[in-house]
């Protein structure tokens, strides 16, 4: 259960929200139900990597396709698996303010640590609309809020617009995922000494060292469970050092860059093929190759083609779990 008041939330976040945060996919069974056993296995696997926290029902969780009851089911499962001693967050963006507040209320009742919210898409065309939308959530919850700045929601907030959002008392930071490097840099410089600003890719650490700012949390990405396995958590180790200002480039080049280069090949390729949509299908199948539960993506997303799956499987042949690894992974 969070131990902060609204007025303390920014200070609480600066000292407690740090390290590598992961993000969950929503695994589905063949008959298109939430794969509860698979989800629990994925959560335990991610936690075993040494991650600081995890979020659910985000972009990679296909939140737009989930029913209200399915979101509640996922919240309940994650709260149960966290045991109250691992940080957890929930994404509650909805086109209906009432539904958003109902989701937030349930999340708060379960003892989640924070909320994630983005622009409500469809009719949000101005920055002031987004600011007012976030204010409604903030006024109706005691939880800390991270804002998600992403073109996936139809509007990308400027650094000045993000400042207005972060002036709201219990907004504690921004996941700056605009994929505009200069916007990320400008946001770090403008707000990074006041709230958490997180760009979900490693390039930000070297740029911060160059320009004099320090990112304190990787909030959040799929790189931990796509790149690491229990006992081989190279990505998490790198992030934990980098947030303290220790950028171990030799370690990165040796342990992470080879698999990251595969991700850098496939991520833009799938995004481009889907005309800009997040590559959920890629991450789900990649996770399956690494021994996690995935399943299909829901319409209107499209699954990877069989030929792409074969090519990705070949690309990852040197990084996939061995027979012994798979045996050890069964305990998660």
Describe, in plain words, how this protein is organized in 3D:
- It is a single chain.
- With 332 residues, the protein is an alpha/beta fold.
- The chain has a single domain, classed as Aldolase class I (TIM Barrel).
- Helices cover 47% and strands 12% of the residues.
- The chain has an eight-stranded parallel beta sheet with strand order 7-6-5-4-3-2-1-8.
- Helix 2 (36-48) crosses helix 3 and helix 6 (159-166) crosses helix 7.
- The two termini are 25 Å apart.
- The mean pLDDT is 96.
CATH evolutionary superfamily: Aldolase class I
| Largest sheet features | 8 strands, parallel
Helix and strand succession?
A: HEHEHEHEHEHEHEHEHHHHHH
Number of E strands? 8
- Strand proportion: 5-15%
Ends apart, CA distance between termini: 25 Å
What is the name of the CATH class?
Alpha Beta
| Overall helicity | 40-55%
The total number of structural domains is: 1
Radius of gyration from the alpha-carbon trace, in angstroms: 19 Å
pLDDT average, as an integer? 96
- Uncertain regions: pLDDT < 50 for 5+ in a row? none
Bulk shape: globular
Q: Enumerate the strands of the largest sheet in spatial order, edge to edge or round the barrel.
A: 7-6-5-4-3-2-1-8
Give me the CATH fold name. TIM Barrel
CATH architecture: Alpha-Beta Barrel
Structural class: alpha/beta
Q: Please give the count of helices.
A: 14
């Amino acid at each position: 259960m969070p131990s902060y008041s609204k007025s303390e939330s920014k200070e609480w976040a600066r000292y407690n929200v740090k390290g590598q945060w992961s993000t969950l996919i929503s695994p589905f069974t063949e008959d298109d139900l939430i794969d509860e056993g698979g989800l629990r296995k994925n959560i335990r696997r991610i936690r075993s990597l040494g991650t600081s926290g995890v979020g659910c029902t985000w972009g990679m969780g296909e939140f737009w396709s989930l029913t209200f009851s399915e979101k509640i089911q996922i919240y309940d499962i994650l709260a149960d698996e966290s045991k109250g001693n691992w940080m957890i967050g929930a994404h509650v963006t909805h086109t209906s303010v009432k539904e958003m507040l109902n989701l937030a209320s349930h999340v708060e009742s379960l003892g989640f640590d924070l909320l994630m919210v983005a622009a409500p898409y469809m009719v949000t065309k101005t920055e002031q609309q987004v600011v007012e939308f976030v204010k409604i959530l903030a006024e109706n919850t005691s939880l800390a809020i991270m804002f998600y700045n992403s073109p996936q929601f139809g509007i990308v907030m400027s650094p000045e617009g993000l400042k207005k959002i972060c002036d709201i008392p219990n907004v504690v930071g921004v996941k700056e995922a605009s994929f505009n490097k200069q916007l990320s840099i400008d946001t770090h410089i403008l707000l990074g000494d006041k709230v958490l600003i997180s760009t979900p890719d490693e390039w930000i650490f070297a740029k911060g060292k160059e320009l004099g700012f320090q990112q304190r949390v990787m909030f959040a990405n799929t790189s931990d469970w796509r790149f690491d396995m229990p006992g081989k958590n190279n990505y998490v180790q790198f992030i934990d050092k980098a947030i303290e200002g220790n950028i171990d480039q030799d370690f990165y080049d040796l342990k992470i860059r080879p698999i990251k280069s595969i991700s850098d090949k496939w991520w833009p390729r799938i995004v481009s093929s889907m005309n800009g949509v997040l590559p959920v299908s890629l991450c789900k199948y990649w996770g399956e190759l690494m021994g996690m539960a995935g399943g299909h993506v829901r319409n209107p997303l499209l699954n990877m083609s069989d030929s792409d799956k074969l090519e990705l499987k070949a690309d990852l042949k040197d990084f996939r779990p061995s027979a012994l690894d798979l045996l050890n992974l069964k305990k998660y």
